[in-house]
Amino acid sequence: MRLIAFGDSMVAGAGDPDHLGWVGRALADRREITLYNLGVRRETSADIAARWPPEAKVRLTDVEPMRIVFSFGANDCHLEGGHPRVAPAESLKNAHAMLTGAGRLCPVLLVGPPPVVDPGVCARLEGLNEHLRTLAARLKVPFIDVLRPLMADGLFQAEAAAWDGAHPGAGGYQRMADLVAAHPAWRAFTGLD
Amino acid sequence: MRLIAFGDSMVAGAGDPDHLGWVGRALADRREITLYNLGVRRETSADIAARWPPEAKVRLTDVEPMRIVFSFGANDCHLEGGHPRVAPAESLKNAHAMLTGAGRLCPVLLVGPPPVVDPGVCARLEGLNEHLRTLAARLKVPFIDVLRPLMADGLFQAEAAAWDGAHPGAGGYQRMADLVAAHPAWRAFTGLD
Lengths: 193, 193
Known about the structure:
Chain A is an alpha/beta fold. Chain A has helices at 9-12, 21-26, 45-57, 74-77, 88-103, 119-139, 147-151, 154-163, 170-182, 184-189; strands at 2-7, 34-39, 66-71, 79-80, 83-84, 108-111, 143-144.
């Protein structure tokens, strides 16, 4: 199996001294899965929606099953000039385009946005997270919610606060990976169950 | 610093149960470096030469120093219909285009191709490796040779033979990472010395 992960710096694993991020950690010991980690720092849903088709195209193959995971949101919710970088309605339009477009190619899964330290961003993230959950349900795309558990996770929060306010270290990424890897949707998606 | 690694399945770390590959392992504990691993399985120098510019473009930033690493070769040297998938002169043309093109954007480094188990492919790889070394020297691009050491590495060879003839496991990738990480060119390139 080959799994492509599209998203932002959290997908890329920025700040992880082990260069795994939550995606690499959630695939630990799954040697039969080739991971293409295509997280890019600072990217919004609009950036990812524009970038994913050509980057997926050169990685798709018919010699093995393919999977595409998306995860984004925090950069949409950051303010720029007093407004979110991407308005909520636009975030959902972008998410809809990505999930339906990629869903035509192979099974797709959406991991909801992890939190940041800034409470204003987190308040907007909670709204976006709920909208993404509803959209995914409507599109019958599996959705893994990590926002509330990680907002309540002292290690994740402490590591992010100590680094740059957004990215945890090995421990926080492992906590997020544990949430994802234990989720029935992830297990089914990656062929475990 | 942000480091982009372009290459083939060995760059992607195919077969590594830890999903690090030699690139992730060579950057262990370098939390300040964000890794964008853009290895793609089966890609030749021609594929990578066509793909790297747009993929680099969306990842380049001026908020941090950038680095680009290339590593390829084995797929060029595999036979298809009795001929190498990419002829040696074409491989060198592609390498020249990548090293000079990327070199206009940021510091660039070339890691020579690691071996595969097939002795015919390895014989062609030895020729290509020497040509790449010469080209890199001419372009003043640092070059790290891993071919001979890994051909002589029993663990690397045994793991690759036991898996699919090309990709080692955690141990073999670690051996390659150790060669790269200890090289003065890598240390200077990643800002250690």
